[in-house]
Amino acid sequence: MIVVSSCLAGLAVRYNESHCLDTRIRQLIDEGKAISVCPELLGGFSTPREPAEMIGGDGMDVLDGTARVVTKSGEDVTEGYVKGAYLTLKKVKELHATAVVLKEYSPSCGSTWIYNGEFKGKKIKGNGVTAALLGRNGIKVISEERLAEGLNKLI
User: How many Cα atoms within 13 Å fall on the side-chain side of residue 43?
Assistant: First the structure.
């Protein structure tokens, strides 16, 4: 069993009520080989919601308390992102998932790249809060951008 970002499964859970359907992931869900999770919804956020980015570092820094997640208007929403990350970790452990496929660039799910905190579309190397927490707990995290390379190994 693998866990995947809900937006990749075609669910309109992103901040702007959109999705990022990946037909391979949707097929895995339809075949019962994957379960979808949205850390941001688990953290108490609604759809739609104001975009958020990390200030002062990446997901590792947020978990260490040295960076925070803020909305475009400046509201600190760090607590919700951390809560969603821990609830996602709990679900992954309950399912005994072998890997988690996450949506790149998200302040929750980015596993290689995130936005730089200026809300201007600039990306930097780093990971989201959920990706960081899963990695710290030995869970294999894969970006949807690298899914084609390892899909057969996951299932």
Answer: 24
Question: Looking only at Cα atoms, what is the longest distance across the chain?
Answer: 42
Q: The pTM is what? A: 0.94
**Which residue positions in the chain have pLDDT lower than 50?**
none
Which residue range is the domain that position 93 belongs to?
A: 2-154
Domain count, the chain: 1
Cα(67)–Cα(61) distance, integer angstroms: 5
Token code pair at residue 104: 């790149």
Backbone phi, psi, residue 113, to 5°: -130, 145
Q: List, for residues 11-46, the tens digit of each pLDDT value.
A: 999 999 999 999 989 999 999 999 999 999 999 999
- Kindly state the tokens that stand for 27: 């097929």
Tokens of 111: 């596993």
